[in-house]
Amino acid sequence: MQINSLVTALDLIATFAFAIVGARIAANKGLDYGGIALIAAVASISGGTLRNLFMGQRPPWILNSWLFASIALAVLITVIARQKKPVGRLLIALDTFGLAVATVSSANFAATNGANFLSIVALGLIGGVTGGLLRDVLCQVEPVLLHRETIGTSCLAGALAYALLNQLEFAEPLAIVAAGLLIVLVRELSIKFDWHLPKI
Length: 200
Hints:
By secondary structure, the chain is mainly alpha-helical. It has one domain. The chain is 76% helix and 0% strand. Helix 7 (151-167) packs antiparallel against helix 8. The longest helix has 26 residues, at 3-28. The chain is globular, with a radius of gyration of 16 Å. The chain starts with a helix and ends in an 8-residue tail after the last helix. The mean pLDDT is 90.
């Protein structure tokens, strides 16, 4: 499989992962079908949209309309399942994968377009966490990003790792895989051992 095809496939899977979690949370809050679709879309494409706009580029959903297919599939599954229960471990695992792909692809996008070290880190973080933050705000639930599971820390660690490896001129595939695995590792460990950032 060519690298471009692999990147496209990962983007579609990550979009689906964010969309299915967003759709489930929207359903749990009693939103109608339109609300579920809106939350699924916001959760899955807003991070990449904001990242691209900061870099003066068109949003990814304009360049790749197949992203809407992932969102539509997530909404369809949620509507057909008609389940209203907390997000389970499988969906959290999918969400973690989405975080890894979104963060690393955003950092890679920034680096490819000539961003400096700090901008690569910032855009990687923005690409990873924006969708989940807006999802929770629109659904009127306390944003997970701000109080548990070290989501922001996981994405920040991955973005820093990618930016550092890129700065040191490591091979691109190695930098991408290493940064993505670090995000998954940090979040999974934080869930397993109930790690949280300190609170006042």
